[in-house]
């Protein structure tokens, strides 16, 4: 894990940091099994949620046994993708996504996003970045840097026309700092997609 990074969702769900969980596994000897064994042990002994149990097991096996986890690529580091198909055409969804009502659901505390390539943006909790690609109503590509991350990630938001006048909303993020941040962002994008769908 990268020093200084915050993991609010993991800590809220479990009261422990990634290093706490990895240290606990190492000291207990429970890390000698398979990923399924470790996941079952974490759930049974500590009541850790299934998604977080899988992340802890994968991180442990990567650190101590060199087993590459899902979501780690050679070119773009850790990445995550979340998709949700909603009952809307791309245009109204784009309007919501880029509005003062929609932005806080996925970008955080901000009222406006300058929809111009190379424009800088900032949002709550020290989030900042730069827009790289703006193609209404189908694509945003931007850097995405939280104050506690060592380097920016790349976030792509796409609106893909689907059958029946529906649209698939896709969040894809790469160059994430570690496996735990990957799960934090998976949960954030899933929550954001659900929140946007509820406003349509």
TrEMBL record:
Pfam families according to UniProt: AHSA1, DUF4287
Residue ranges of every copy of the Activator of Hsp90 ATPase homologue 1/2-like C-terminal domain listed in the record: 89-200
Annotated family: Belongs to the AHA1 family.
Protein name: Activator of Hsp90 ATPase 1 family protein
Species this chain originates from: Paenibacillus mucilaginosus 3016
